[in-house]
Amino acid sequence: MMKSFVPLLLLLVLRGACAVTIRPLEPPRIRPLYLKATFDMDSNITSYYMRVSGPSDTRDKFNMTLLPVTGSKDPTIFEARVQVAIGERQRIELQSKSASEMFRMLFQGSPVDGEQSFTDQICEFELTRKTEQHLTEYSMENSNCTYNPERNLDVFTYFTVGLQNEDDVKVNPFGGFKNSIKDFVNRTSTSLIVNEENMRKDKYQLIDAHFWILTMYLRSSEIVNSLGWNVQLV
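RE: above sequence
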């Protein structure tokens, strides 16, 4: 039987470890700049025009066309157009391999007209890693994004991991995992601690780890009310 994975003891072990910055304190590399929505009553379709900034290798997971308007320099400004019928939804996921980053936005098919900028929803955050013996800790700090009713903004952060067993089956340790999750990983909204020695003893391995940050307007006063970013750690 594996020894208990006690968070307090782990923190004591990691306290003396040196932190390595894996992502400096800065805004996301992929971020929206401007959005305009136009509703057509005859077709019941809302047309969205948007501009986003990102690395030159930014692509949409679902093959939406991104047209660069500033050449190939970094960051590149892209424009895109999306049409959504009333009652339908369409999600975009912009990814950059060079930045190990993904940006997500959901468009609702609703009769809206207007413009939106995203200054308040762009968070600066930093990611660090500490390694000591068989333990690895990933930590997040942000400088300007917290729950703020005056700014009509709420912020959620969390970590996700994927494990693979000896049969090459991928499992989600936070989704009804049969083993004690505390033996393998322990997470809060701002940190993730991984015990790779305990994984190896039980013939599991860590195959991916991600950090998520979501920003959401508390009142539905904007065209798009929530934005999400994902940074790949492993």
